[in-house]
Amino acid sequence: MRVAPTWRDPAARATFRTSRVYTAVAVLGVSNLVMVGIMSIVPVWMDHHGHGLGLVGTAVSIHVLGMFGPAPLTGWLSDRLGAGPVALAGVGVLAAAAVGGAAASLASPPATIGFLLLLGLGWNAGVVGASAMLAAAVPSGRRMQAEGVGEASMGMVAALGGPGAGALAAHSGFAALCLAAGTVSVIAAVVLRRSLLAGVRSAGDAGA
């Protein structure tokens, strides 16, 4: 059975125009925006502080390990605890990592590596949890399209996040960039938490 493209199918468009879909896509976008924004500047900033390529490579490698290494665990937690709580934990960790980046001196390798690891872990939980939320928010026949929507949102914010982060860091400094990323993460966490609480109340009302 051939599935009509989403933009041509009114029923499909209606399926995607729900608060659950919007929230999941927003969390995917924010998770990638925060990670890309900070990581697009970190190697340059570390070089500016006199770190060699060896340390820069080690820090980035540990960050990447945090991004992808925990995926089996966060996937399992999404099944056990729910995708929403995992996504909420992810944006919370992203906020903590951003604040840590603003507070930590990039002249200190352990502090730099620590907040980059935390940034990777937050990205992982945010993306895995929000992806599972998005898949659950649409009918099974639309999940491939939903994945495309999520990937597109992540790609668009990445395209904007890199140049935007460079301009902000050049104008106001790395700490300001991290604080801006942390603010975006906190806003996403508040919106997601309200969405999850609204879902719980709706489920309770339906079961009453």
Task: Outline the structure in words.
By secondary structure, this protein is mostly helical. It has one domain (35-198): Up-down Bundle (Growth Hormone, Chain: A). The chain contains 9 helices and no strands. The radius of gyration is 18 Å and the shape is elongated. The mean pLDDT is 87.
Please sum up the structure shown:
By secondary structure, this protein is an all-alpha fold.
Descriptors:
elongated; Growth Hormone, Chain: A; mainly alpha
Low-confidence stretches at least 5 residues in length (pLDDT < 50)? none
Q: From the 3D structure, determine the CATH topology.
A: Growth Hormone, Chain: A
CATH architecture: Up-down Bundle
Our measurement of the CA-to-CA distance between the termini, rounded to an integer number of angstroms, reads 39 Å
Class from helix and strand fractions: mainly alpha
Q: Tell me roughly what share of residues is in helical segments.
A: over 70%
Largest sheet properties: none
Number of discrete helical segments: 9
- By CATH, the superfamily comes out as MFS general substrate transporter like domains
Count of individual beta strands: 0
Anisotropy-based shape: elongated
User: What Rg, in angstroms, do the CA atoms define?
Assistant: 18 Å
Note the topology:
Elements: H1 10-16, H2 19-39, H3 42-48, H4 53-68, H5 71-81, H6 83-103, H7 109-136, H8 143-172, H9 174-207
